[in-house]
Amino acid sequence: MQRTVVKSSLPALTGEDGGAVDPDNAEETLRELAMLLSRRLPVYYEASLARLALEADLPQLDLRALVFIIEFGALTTGHLGQLMGISHGGVTAMVDRLEEGGYIFRDRDERDRRVVILRPVEDRCEALIEPELYMLGRLNEIARQAAAGEVVDAYELLTRCVKVFRRDTAQWLENKELAR
Questions:
Q1: Chain mean pLDDT for the chain
Q2: If we measure between CA atoms, which residue out of 41, 36, 40, 42 comes closest to residue 64?
Q3: Secondary element (H or E) of residue 153
Q4: Phi and psi dihedrals of 42, rounded to 5?
C-alpha cells in the first residue's frame, strides 16, 4: 500500500532558535493555540465574569450581555439574542434590567424604526471597560517572566485574531453563516 503525504496548508512557524518548526509540530501548536483561544481561556474568563457579576451585583447572564454590547459598541436586540442563545422575551427582560440599572440605553435604527439598538452608557460601564485588576496583575506577573518581545508578539497575534473573529461574528450575525 502506498502512503500519500499531505503537506500542511498552515503557515510556517518559527522555532526558538529562529529556524522553521517541523510542520507536524507547527500544526499541533496551532491546534493547541486554537484550543486555548476557543475553549480554555473562555472557561477562565467565564469564572472571572462570575466573580465580577457578584461584585457588580448583576446576574451573570446580564453582565455577559453587557460585555457583548460594550465590545460591539451597539447591538440589536435580535443580535444579542442570537449571540446568547436566548429568546426574544428573555432578551427583553434582560435589556429592561440593564436599562433600569443605567448600563444601557435603547435606540432606534434610522432605516428601520422597528429595530431596537442597544448601546452602553459609557459612564456607567467605565469600570467594566477598563482591564480587570486581577487580569492586569496576572498579566504583569507573566510579562515579567517573558522574553523580550514575547508580550508584544502575543499582543499583535491576539489583536489580529480579534479582528478576524469580530469580522466573522458580524458576518454570522447578518447572514447566520460563519466564515470558513
A1: 83
A2: 42
A3: helix 150-175
A4: -60, -35
Q: Is residue 144 part of a domain?
A: yes
Rounded Cα distance between 105 and 102, Å, is 7
Domain count, the chain: 3
Q: Is residue 137 domain-shared with residue 164, that is, in the same domain?
A: yes
CATH number at residue 67: 1.10.10.10
Beta bridge partners of 105: 119
More confident residue, 61 or 148: 61
Which three three-digit cell numbers place residue 112? 428601520
pLDDT tens per residue, range 108-130 = 888 888 888 999 998 888 877 67
Same domain, 82 and 120: yes
Residue 177 lies in a domain: yes
Q: Which residues contact 127 (CB under 8 A, 6 or more apart)?
A: 56
Query: Which residue range is the domain that position 100 belongs to?
Result: 60-129
Instruction: Tell me how far apart the alpha carbons of residues 32 and 37 are, in angstroms, rounded to a whole number.
Output: 9
